[in-house]
Design a protein that fits this description.
This protein is of the alpha/beta class and 554 residues long. Helices cover 29% and strands 18% of the residues. It is globular and about 75 Å long. The chain starts with 38 loop residues before the first strand and ends in an 18-residue tail after the last helix.
């Protein structure tokens, strides 16, 4: 990944005006809980310079959103179509597509739908990792676009009419089974070159997905390998498709003027409409200051809630979710790549394996507009930790949304080493996993292709894998290691999403490989988290078990 060299945003230019239709602007009569000109620190440890004077430039005036927001919100509320949490959905694609053969009939349709909006400029902007199992960064964007706007004269279909209301930089570690979600405030001040100093969410308006990706990559100081965006209409439908989600709110959420939400504190189940409203309810936190930050924390909580529900729901949840996703997600990843990635996260525990935080900023109120000025020093430290596979914060006090907004996973650790040993996570072992060595994969089931699918997953992670049939049917999936290959066995178990610790081979199994994996009936039944990548693509055919011999044919 690239070096962390985030440059402090500078002050510049003339103030933004307005020509285009307005979208969810912070209205002048609803400040962030501070008087005009106030400087509010959001996770920032280093004071910024003077407030930017006249940010923006005249040529970009049509991108401001100070007018008409209230009318548009009321219109959308009357029609019952609500602003949604967008960034969650592609994370879910990477998890749910691994659901098995039940999804196979949908793959061609899904693949066509989700990649249709990706152009060569975006593909040229994305940077491939050296090895398939390496950690990578993915940009998740929520666009303030829906079918109604796309068909209207005021907006149309061109990207220049839209902005990114949700920006999440995700670090995905397939080998370690960890996902880090870092929210970047949409009002963050950045230098957009000839377009002047602008809010970061304007990058999409100026240059679409490719330019937005380039801007975020430079801002965070990392290469971005994958991209996903979603429009307004999807999240509520996905939540309803999986039967709702459960969240735990630290404080009550009341927002009578804008979203109409009135939720009590505590654990509760939300339907799609309510979950979508919670993902946009920033004014419910005006009394705390900086409602966007609390809203972003709730969005990350909702991502975790949906992941948890989908992973527990099996095929009955996966199939409708995948079908719904295909109409709303745009990503550079085809379904085969997503399915392969998903196999690395079958054993994910959202409370332990997801890290969460946000870019530290200082609020500046200038010319009736709020901007977020990045605390560059604090941001660099956070990204250094994220790049090492650590939670974003060293100290719990850095997460100022804790105890007010929702939360997901882990945000804080004091250690300096990546938390990739066996503590927590999939719990496969207490040694640091290694992802190299030779692995013999044996099919101890009556289903064809199980060993081949497992070997493919292991090869993608860095192992050298061969396959064969086990001498007899096995009830339980087990990882055995020979000699001192326990760390390699731990890597195999983690890659396959197995919770049971590897076992020392007593000579009952092959001793010529570092590791032996024996797939058993529990893998097929799902108790060993069996939804693997090749299953999702239709590979492997079920055959009848007519004897006590494993007849899977690898």
């Amino acid at each position: 990944m690239g070096k962390h060299s985030a440059t402090a945003p500078q002050q510049a230019g003339a103030s933004e005006g307005d020509v285009r239709p307005q979208i969810q602007a912070p209205l002048p009569d609803v400040p962030r809980g501070h008087h005009a000109g106030a400087r509010t620190h959001h996770g920032a440890s280093v004071a910024a310079g003077a407030a930017p004077q006249g940010v923006g430039n005249p040529s970009a005036s049509r991108y401001s959103r100070a007018k008409g927001a209230e009318e548009y919100i009321e219109k959308r509320q009357r029609r019952g179509r609500h602003h949604v949490l967008r960034a969650a959905l592609v994370t879910l694609v990477a998890l749910v597509v691994a659901g098995g053969a039940a999804v196979a009939a949908y793959l061609y349709h899904i693949n066509t739908a989700i990649t249709a909006g990706v152009d060569d400029k975006l593909r040229d902007t994305l940077v491939e990792t050296k090895d398939p199992g390496d950690p990578f960064y993915m940009l998740l964007l929520g666009i303030d676009k829906d079918e109604e706007r796309a068909e209207s004269k005021d907006y149309g279909k061109d990207y220049s009419a839209y902005r990114t209301d949700t920006i999440i930089l995700a670090r995905v570690d397939p080998r370690d089974g960890k996902v880090t979600l870092i929210s970047i405030p949409r009002d963050t001040l950045v230098d957009l070159g000839s377009n002047g100093k602008q809010k970061i969410n304007a990058a999409y308006s100026f240059g679409g997905a490719a330019y937005a990706t380039k801007v975020v990559s430079e801002f965070a100081g990392v290469d971005i390998s994958h991209y996903a965006e979603i429009d307004m209409d999807g999240f509520a439908k996905v939540v309803d498709a999986i039967g709702g989600v459960t969240v735990d709110l630290p404080v009550e959420v009341k927002d009578p003027k804008y979203t109409g939400l009135d939720l009590p504190a505590g654990k509760q189940k939300l339907d799609g409409r309510t979950a979508a409203l919670l993902g946009r309810a920033r004014h419910a936190y005006d009394s705390y200051g900086g409602g966007d930050f609390y809203r972003a924390a709730n969005q990350r909580m909702l991502i975790g809630a949906v992941i948890t529900k989908v992973m527990k729901g099996g095929a009955s949840t996966i199939v409708p979710t995948v079908t719904t996703l295909s109409g709303y997600v745009t990503t550079d990843m085809d379904v085969t790549s997503i399915a392969s990635l998903a196999s690395s996260f079958k054993g994910i525990d959202v409370e332990k394996d997801v890290y969460s935080g946000q870019c530290p900023t200082i609020s500046e109120y200038v010319n009736n507009t709020w901007y977020e000025v990045c605390d560059t020093a604090a941001w660099k430290k956070i990204m250094e930790r994220v790049d090492k596979g650590l939670p974003p914060y060293e100290d719990a006090s850095q997460d100022f949304t804790a105890g007010v907004a929702g939360s997901v996973g882990v945000s804080t650790s004091t250690g300096d080493d990546a938390s990739s040993s066996g503590a927590g996570g999939n719990g496969a072992t207490q040694v640091t996993p290694e992802y190299t060595g030779t692995v013999l994969v044996l099919n101890g089931t009556s289903t064809a292709g199980v060993a081949g699918n497992g070997a493919s997953t292991l090869t993608s992670a860095g192992f050298t894998a061969t396959t064969n049939d086990a001498p007899s049917l096995q009830a339980k999936t087990t990882v055995y290691y020979n000699g001192d290959a326990q760390a390699k066995a731990a890597g195999v178990a983690k890659t396959l999403g197995l919770s049971a610790a590897p076992v020392q081979n007593d000579g009952s199994w092959d001793t010529s490989s570092d590791v032996v994996v024996v797939f058993g009936a529990d893998w097929i039944d799902g108790s060993a988290k069996s939804a693997n990548a090749a299953d999702a693509t239709g590979a492997g055919t079920t055959v009848s078990a007519g004897s006590n011999t494993a007849t899977g044919t690898n």
